[in-house]
Amino acid sequence: MSKTLVLVLNCGSSSLKFSILNTISKKKIFFGTFERLYLLKSFVTWECDHDKKKIILNDYESHEQALTFMVKNIFTKYKNIINRIKFIGHRVVHGGCDLTRSYIINDNIIQIIKKNIVFAPSHNPLNLLGIHLSMKYFPNLSKNNVAVFDTAFYNTLPESAYLYAIPYYLYKDYNIRRYGAHGISHSYVLQQASKILDKSIQSLNIITCHLGGGSSISAIVNGRCVDTSMGLTPLEGLVMGTRSGNLDPSIIFFMNDVLNIPINTIQDILINKSGILGLTNGITSDFRYVEKNYYSENESYRAVNVFCYSLSKYISSYASVLFGKIDAVIFTGGIGENSFLVRKLALLNLKFLGLELDDSLNQDYVLHKSSFINKKSTIPILVIPTNEDLVIAEETIQLFS
């Protein structure tokens, strides 16, 4: 096992991340990302032994095309590494009530993931695609695939946080409740915060903000997650790239009853055409664009402000969930790590909580490094690069130990 390599696949809603990790050194020896899938100018970048490559792909590339390109056009150039892979770990967003930890994948696990597609329609199908194609392209490893679930982190939510105020039988009979998402990322930054702050996980009270194409925020008390923004599905909560986040449910009735928009079309609008994309009137869902044009374009200004206002409200409300005893607020994810503007705007009105950015530290944050960005003598504000791949690889190895 000392030289075991794990291939990790993370099929996001508009991206595909892949990496190969040495589980002893905990280092990535190969990693890459397909970005802007289903958008114009999609591309893939990867790095192996300081060999960095970038290829512009055809417009509107799909996940299936990306996975096939990865195996047939990238991996074939690194057979000496690929042939040493022993296990494959997959990020799966939704395990529902049935899958509350990581599992070696078999037909039964696949069927349960399929059953939970209704709770994560933008993610579970893509996660299953990654599983099926990895079994196809690596038949010798077909019994060595592991599913690691985002929802598992939220098994500690109290009833007061996971229940909706709807007839109770809908929970008891149909499992309609809050499940959360991005749990793998929130779990990782919790572990890292423990090391950085030199406090045991069991004593940590933190607010973790995973911000990217999909965004979520979690409240953690004494090392246990007690609330999170995503709900039954990843549609609830913060404003996201193409997802609406929180809204009045009556908007759905209005769109259907008054505007005569079919339910399946409304679902598509709220999942795929809202969020940053909707606020920019269809211009883009890419946060890099709206940040770049924040001061010069009304649509971008509007989108960034709504996004940050949503985030600010959640942070302040979760301060009460932590009883005001905040050990740190942590930013992670593509936007959380890269956007000093989002961090600044989201925390601008939260000085009353003891949260105060150091503008220089915030703006000069060095990518890929964990750093404090708060003023001295205030509550720690941290940027911690997430490493979901490492969590998935370690969970995978543990199941075969």
What does this structure look like?
With 401 residues, the protein is α/β, with parallel strands linked by helices. The protein has two domains: 5-155, 2-Layer Sandwich (Nucleotidyltransferase, domain 5); 200-383, ATPase, nucleotide binding domain (Nucleotidyltransferase, domain 5), CATH 3.30.420.40. It is 37% helix and 19% strand. The protein contains 16 helices and 14 strands. The strands form two sheets. Strands 5-4-3-2-1-6-8-7 form an eight-stranded mixed sheet, with helices on both faces. The protein has a six-stranded mixed sheet with strand order 11-10-9-12-14-13, with helices on both faces. α1 packs parallel to α4 (124-137) and α12 (298-321) crosses α14. The termini are close together.
